[in-house]
Structures are given as C-alpha cells and as structure tokens.
C-alpha cells in the first residue's frame, strides 16, 4: 500500500477493496448452490499429522477479552468465543479455503428427495474431553436443551431458522424464538442408533447444512446439565455456564481463572488436523490497549490491533484469495514486522432504538444527523464499509454493487451527507427546542472496541445536541447490554448482528416488526408491513428453488425499505476484520467470516 496517500483517498481505496472482496465472496456462495455436489467429506483428508506437538515450548500465546459464558445455549462475548471456538466441534464445518459445508462429526449424510429428512452417519470412536464416548444421543440431548431449557437464548436456530419439526403449546405466551411454548421431548431429532442421527423438518429449508456449522448446535455430553427437559443432569446451569466445558474440539480446557487466564491443551484424541502445538495460553485483559501493549512487547503470537492504533500505511499486501482474504505483513509502531490478514465480516453494527422509549421523530432526526461514512472514518479508523441496511453487502440481492446503488439512490436520510436542518425542523415540529430537548441515554460497550464506541458516542452527543437531542453516555459490558435490552430498560444502544449463514434472512429476523425484538418496533403500518412480508414472503418460501430464492430476495429488499420509513435501528457500518501473527508462526486466518478462528492448524517454524 502507498504510504503517501491522504486519509480520504486511503479510506476510499479501502472501501473499494471491501466491495470487490464482497464480490469474490458472493461468487463463492453462488458456487455452493448445487445440492448434487453436497458431500459430507473429511476436512482433515489432507495428509496432515494428528495429535499435539512434542516441544515443551510449543505454546501459542494470545490475549482475549473478558469471558462471560461458555454455554452454547447462551449469547457469548468475544472472550468466551475465543475459547469455545477451540474446544467445541459440530456436525458440519467449513474447511480452510473452502466455502461449502463439509462433515466434521458427521462422516456422511443423506437428504430425502423432498428436502425434509436429514440422516447423519456420525464418526465412531470419538470421545469428549472428559473421556465419555460421543454418540447421537449427545446431540439429541444438546438440542433438546437448546430448545427447551429455561436458560436458553438461542432456541431459534433449530426451531425458527432450521424448521425442525416440534410441537407447541397454543396456550403458552412464548413464540418460536423464545421456548416458553415448546412441548418438551417433541423435537424431531432422534438417535436411530448410537452413530446415526435423524432430523425431520416441517418444510424444506435453503441453508440447513450451513446452519449446522454454528457453535450453538455443537454437542456436550448427554445429561451433563440439569436444565434440559426430561434429564436429571450432573450439575446446575450456573455451575456449567462458568466452568470449563468438555467438548470434542482440538483443544481441551485444563485451567481457568476468571478475569486472569485460561490454558487449553492439545486434545490427543481429536480426529482432525493437528493440533500442531502443545497448548494455547490465553491472558484475559479487559482493555484493548492492554492487549495491544502485550503485542508490542512480543508477548503474544496471534493478536488484534485496536482501531485507534491501526495504520493503513503499515500494511503490505502480498496475496489475495478467491474468497477475498488478503494477507501480507504489517509494521508495528516499534518497527517490528508481523504477518497480517484481513477479510470482510458479515456483521452489521447499528444503534438500536427502543421504539417504546424513543419516538419516531427522534429516530428519524438521528438518521438525518449522522453520516455513516464519517462514522467509519472517525470512530472506526476506516476499517469497514458504511452501512445503510441490515443485510451485509456480500449477501445482499445482487451483491455489493446493488447494495451501494440502492443506498445511494434511495436512502431517505442522506447518502454520505449530514442533514441537520431536516433533523432540527423535525424535532421542532414535535415540540423540542434548545430549552426542551429530547433526553436520550446512549449505552455502548465497555468491553468490545471500547475506544471506537466511545468516539462514536461522543460524535453522537456533539452532532445531536444542536438538533435538540441531549445525549447522555454510559459504557457497560456486552452481556449487561443484552440483559438490559431483554428487559426493555435502554433508550438507544450499540449492538449488531453477524449472520450465521449466507442469506439476508439471518439478519432481517431483527427487522420484522416483532414486539419481542430489542427495538420493540411493532403496531405501526410499516412495522405490520414488515411482519407480513416476513411471514408471507420469506417464511412462506423456504426452499432452495430458483423461484423461492427470487421471492425471498424481493422480500428482503421490501423489508429494508419498511425499516427505512421509521428507523427502529440506525445503521453504522460493516466491519473489516484484521488479524496479526508472529513471523515464526505458520498460520492461516479464517477464509471467510463464516470460518472460525481456530488454532489447530497453526505451527511454529
């Protein structure tokens, strides 16, 4: 990269790359659509040796954010995910450099002609980290718990998204997202025998295998926790949530001290590639800058750099993959050179406005006042693409170019411009002025990009004040935001969504005009229209045929338009992810945003 470019040109070049990279990802996605090519292959069939390394110094050092939960049925923060990515394994996965699901715990699978019955042949001889044998019964138990536990936050994955057949209690107050109405034991997932799993769907669905790569559906030993309907359990939920869990992944949890450190060691009985190192030592630090200082000191092998410290001119790109991952080197501020990788995330960051607390005119005034391009540059140091819709550009109908064309021509609150005059007029027509502003509390992360979100919050306060919105700022941990959002206790707050499979449906579930969503946006004409589109155009066309794909894609566009009308959420940006690793470490970063950051294939030279 040319270090002489000015900031504006630098930012525009980065955005051009991100759009181009998105096109490569879409081509890969399109290449995965042929069901005749689906094969539950072994991602480890590359001749790589199994088992851990032999050198006592063969340990990867990393720093991670604070942990919260290690339980797959709970929403987890970044620190916990850094650990669970290494210790769990699931039925399906993505192989390095590939964008088609392949078998992980599943050696093979069959799909019925009508697309409603999936049967998986499971690997034999696999053991959990606690020594218990893995069988189909473990998945039945884990998924029953995912759907039926009173502690679950993730039931939708196999009730709403993957439409696994099950019974509901019509008199229960719950819905398909929350498990109150689920009839225990009715989930149509059965162990045919110890190593055969059968799953029946209510209707065919377009992304079943992709969805089965996610962490929420990865199993734990049968009967381990006592909150699954029909099981006694060996331990309570609270003990399990904060304890080192036994998984089937390449590393096992051997030591953990909350707020201090975790040690994972190579699991000798892991079926797949590696691990080629003996262990992973994880130091837990709440502060981004603290983790960065460890990287500057040479104390870690794989790390990230806060946006505040990122310098685009320090990047020297050497290669780019077909999936859009760019790798090269990066010169740290201390003069040391490290390896570098970047790829476009499928995450959309936004400001959620609780519609029961923040009126429509305030939400619209916020949208008029804030400029997403400025936010990317000033708050997030150019590491992303301005966002105008829930759907990431790589999975938007027609791809990144269609996304930007739609936003440029039709976004009603100004594309790459601020319109404070319109915002002020709107607020004054609703009774607000300098003496009687609308008082708004914006709650943002203290443990996820805290410096970047602090800059965002202060930019909001500076720009919204003159349009009669008085912003107070509070920073709290991610899990606190989740808990308070569930209770409807927040005005406006930072959040976002990373999609689990390459389809807009996975993010537009938060834009469907549902009173259970964090935005509490419902009851208005646009909200009811979005709900109708979701029910009668998206959910009514679940299959993989060309006709149903076209119907869904048109529905996605119409849902985005309905949300533009009342702005329950103000879009911010779609990030680019970066990762850095020491020169003596052979390591391949994730091939796409759907791949996990796992260390079993890493080795020291």
Overview of this protein structure:
With 605 residues, this protein is of the alpha+beta class. It folds into two domains: 39-256, Dipeptide-binding Protein, Domain 1 (Dipeptide-binding Protein, domain 1); 348-574, Dipeptide-binding Protein, Domain 3 (Dipeptide-binding Protein, domain 3), CATH 3.10.105.10. The chain is built from 15 helices and 22 strands. It has helices spanning 7-30, 78-87, 136-148, 208-211, 237-241, 288-296, 360-369, 372-379, 400-410, 420-429, 450-464, 478-486, 505-508, 525-538, 546-566, and strands at residues 59-64, 92-94, 101-103, 106-111, 117-122, 189-193, 196-200, 251-257, 261-266, 279-284, 302-303, 315-320, 326-331, 337-344, 347-353, 384-386, 438-445, 469-476, 492-498, 569-581, 585-586, 603-604. The strands form five sheets. Strands 11, 12, 13, 14, 15, 16, 17, 18, 19 and 20 form a ten-stranded mixed beta sheet that branches. A four-stranded mixed beta sheet has the order 1-10-9-8, covered by helices on one side. Strands 4-5-7-6 form a four-stranded antiparallel beta sheet, with helices on one face. The protein is globular, with a radius of gyration of 24 Å. It starts with 6 loop residues before the first helix and ends with a strand. Mean pLDDT is 88; it is low at 1-55.
């Amino acid at each position: 990269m040319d270090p002489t470019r000015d900031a504006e040109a630098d930012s525009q070049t980065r955005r051009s790359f991100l759009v181009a990279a998105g096109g490569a990802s879409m081509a890969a996605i399109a290449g995965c659509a042929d069901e005749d090519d689906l094969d539950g292959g072994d991602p480890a069939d590359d001749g790589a040796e199994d088992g851990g390394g032999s050198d006592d110094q063969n340990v990867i050092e990393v720093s991670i954010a604070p942990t919260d939960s290690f339980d797959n049925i709970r929403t987890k923060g970044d620190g916990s995910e850094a650990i669970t990515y290494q210790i769990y394994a699931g039925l399906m996965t993505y192989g390095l450099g590939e964008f088609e699901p392949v078998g992980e715990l599943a050696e093979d699978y069959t799909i019925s002609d009508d697309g409603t019955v999936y049967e998986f042949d499971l690997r034999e001889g696999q053991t959990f980290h606690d020594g218990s044998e893995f069988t189909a019964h473990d998945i039945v138990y884990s998924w029953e718990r995912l759907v039926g536990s009173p502690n679950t936050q993730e039931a939708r994955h196999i009730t709403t998204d993957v439409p696994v057949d099950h019974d509901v209690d019509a008199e229960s107050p719950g819905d398909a997202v929350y498990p109150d109405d689920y009839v225990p034991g009715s989930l149509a997932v059965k162990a045919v025998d110890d190593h055969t799993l059968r799953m029946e769907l209510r209707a065919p669905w377009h992304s079943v295998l992709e969805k089965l790569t996610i962490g929420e559906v990865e199993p734990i030993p049968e009967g381990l926790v006592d909150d699954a309907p029909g099981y006694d359990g060996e331990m309570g939920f609270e003990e399990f949530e904060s304890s080192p869990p036994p998984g089937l992944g390449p590393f096992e949890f051997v030591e953990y001290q909350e707020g201090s450190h975790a040690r994972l060691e190579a699991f000798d009985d892991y079926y797949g590639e590696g691990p080629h190192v003996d262990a992973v030592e994880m130091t837990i630090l709440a502060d981004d800058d603290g983790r960065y200082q460890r990287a500057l000191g040479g104390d870690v092998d794989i790390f990230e750099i806060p946006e505040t410290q990122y310098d685009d001119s320090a990047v020297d790109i050497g290669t780019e993959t077909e999936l859009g991952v760019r790798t090269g080197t990066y010169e740290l501020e201390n003069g040391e050179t490290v390896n570098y990788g970047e790829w476009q995330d499928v995450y959309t960051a936004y400001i959620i406005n609780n519609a029961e607390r923040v009126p429509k005119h305030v939400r619209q005034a916020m949208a008029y006042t804030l400029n997403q391009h400025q936010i990317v540059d000033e708050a997030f140091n150019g590491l992303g693409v301005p966002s105008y819709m829930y759907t990431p550009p790589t999975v938007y109908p027609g791809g990144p170019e269609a996304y930007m064309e739609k936003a440029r021509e039709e976004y009603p609150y100004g594309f790459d411009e601020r319109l404070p005059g319109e915002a002020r007029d709107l607020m004054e027509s609703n009774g607000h002025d300098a003496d009687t502003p609308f008082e708004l509390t914006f709650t943002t992360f203290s443990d996820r990009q805290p410096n970047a979100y602090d800059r965002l919050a202060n930019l909001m306060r500076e720009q919204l004040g003159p349009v009669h919105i008085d912003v107070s700022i509070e920073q709290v941990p991610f899990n606190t935001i989740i808990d308070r959002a569930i209770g409807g206790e927040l005005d406006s707050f930072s959040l976002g969504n990373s999609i689990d499979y390459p389809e807009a449906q996975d993010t537009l579930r938060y834009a469907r005009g549902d009173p259970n969503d964090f935005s509490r946006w419902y009851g208005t004409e646009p909200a009811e229209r979005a709900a109708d589109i979701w029910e009668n155009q998206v959910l009514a066309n679940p299959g993989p045929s060309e006709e149903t794909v076209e119907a869904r894609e048109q529905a996605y566009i119409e849902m985005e338009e309905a949300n533009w009308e009342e702005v329950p959420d103000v879009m911010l940006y779609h990030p680019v992810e970066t990762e850095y690793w020491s020169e003596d470490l052979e390591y391949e970063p994730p091939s796409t945003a759907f791949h996990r950051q796992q260390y079993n294939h890493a080795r020291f030279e």
